[in-house]
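Journal club prep — side note

Before the paper discussion, L.F. wants everyone to see what a predicted structure for a comparable chain looks like in C-alpha cell form. Sequence:
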Amino acid sequence: MLARVGAVAITEGDLQQAIAQEPEALRDRYKLPEPRRQMLDGMVRFEFLAQASERAGAMKDPKVVRSWRQQAINKFLQDEIGQSTAPLSISSADIAAYYEAHKAAEFSSPPVALADVEEMIRQRLHRERREAALEMLITKLKDDTAVEIYKP
C-alpha cells in the first residue's frame, strides 16, 4: 500500500494504472521518484475531494447522478459497438460505393470529385453505422427487458 485516505487504500497497482492512463510519451518519466510522488499526491488529493463530495451528498444530486449514468452509458456503448463502427473500419471501397450510389443526387451539380468529399462520406458512413448498431442494440435490450410505457 502506498497511501490510505480514509478507508480507501491506494496501491502500487493503482499508481501503475494511473500511469498507464498517461500519454505513452510521458510514461517513462514516472520511473523517477519525484514524478511518481507527484502522481501519488494527485491521487490522494483526488480521493480527499471524492470523499468530501460524497459526505456532502453530491452523489445524490440528480445532476451528478445523470452525469455518472451518462458516462456509464458512453462506456457501455463504446464496449458494445465502438470498435465495429470506428471511422477507420470504413474502407475505401465503402466510400467509393457510397459516392457512386449518391453521385447523381449529391455530387453532380456542380460535379464533385470523390477525393474532395471522401472524409465527409467517411463521417457519414460512420454515423450511419453507429446509428444502425445502436438500434440493433436497443432492439436486443428491449427483447431482454420488460418495458411498460404509459400515456404522458
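L.F.'s comment for the group: The chain has two domains: 3-58, 80-144. Keep this in mind when we get to the figures.
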